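Pilot study result, target chain (224 residues):
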Amino acid sequence: MAVTTTDAATVAASAKAQVAASTSKMAANSQTFLTLLTTQLKNQDPTAPTDMNSMTQQLTQMTGVEQQLLSNELLTKLVSQSANAMGTAVGLIGKTVTAASNANNIVGGKADWLYELGANATAGSVSIKNSSGAIVHTEKLSDLSAGRHSISWNGKDLAGRTLADGGPYTATFNAADADGKSVAVTAMVQGTATGAEQVGDQTMVSLTSGRVPYSAVVGVSSGI
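Predicted structure:
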């Protein structure tokens, strides 16, 4: 079920108000309790001192309530952060989004990836697997200079059969320099944002090429 920005913001505001009210009330009750306790200890009968077991139970109960309020406050912050992320993610709809991800779908008979080399390489390749983990395509990387480049797969498997649109398909990039040392490669996907939704504690952005976490977005533009 998709969560709208308004829904998330309303939940966050409501939770924050409830925690604030409970915390304020708890602070007042704690002060009253400590005042009464201090007065009781000052005026206790030396021949019949205050029952420490009872006092300890009261302190334990109050500590438990305070811990619960702290947990609620943390939860409120998380909900608020999710609401903020949703608001920003919704603003991406209709724009071209670049995200760090190696998963993509075949759309219109092809799937495109971006890859960024951390340094110049002398050799490199990419292997593409289907959702079952089977390799369906491999090829050598033609551009091995440091920086961002792209590849386009025609959606055909190793036997030359055209695969249906869909996925996901996962691309694994490998590159090495002249000494045979590995060169860092970051895989990315790009597509037009078509929607946003909250899935558990993670904000997801739907692209024409698939769905990516909002936290993976590394670039936004008005058009490809």
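One observation from the pilot: Helices lie at 5-42, 52-90. A full batch analysis is planned for the follow-on phase.
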